[in-house]
Input
Amino acid sequence: MGLKIALKPKERVIIAGAAIVNGPSPATLLVENNVPVLRAKDILKEREAQTPSQKIYFIIQLMYLDPDNLPSHHKLYWQHVRSFLKAAPSALGLIDAISTHILSANYYRALKSARKLISYETKLIAEAKVP
Output
């Protein structure tokens, strides 16, 4: 059984590294083999990765979509994680969850966990701004 993807008009998706944009009508795709799939709402462009947690998310996205360069992506990930934890040691539990997924090569789940890290970072920044 494959993965069924219902696309809205003009919706973007990345399937196995190919950027696909749906036409003007809704469409349904069936992906019959195991390949990386990211919907537009889950795609973070490099120029949009402004905060440390977003940069971590982007690196994980590269791991998921570009497995040929995993060693360099992993190296970059661990550099960013060390830096993040120096600034926000309270995020250790979230980082541990993400890293566990990465070490088991489950990059999609790592991306989902990284979304929680982005939310946590946003919360920390908001709390720091409150006098």
User: Anything to note?
Assistant: The chain has a mean pLDDT of 94. Residues 107-129 form the longest helix (23 residues). The beta strands are 3-7, 12-15, 18-21, 27-31, 37-39.
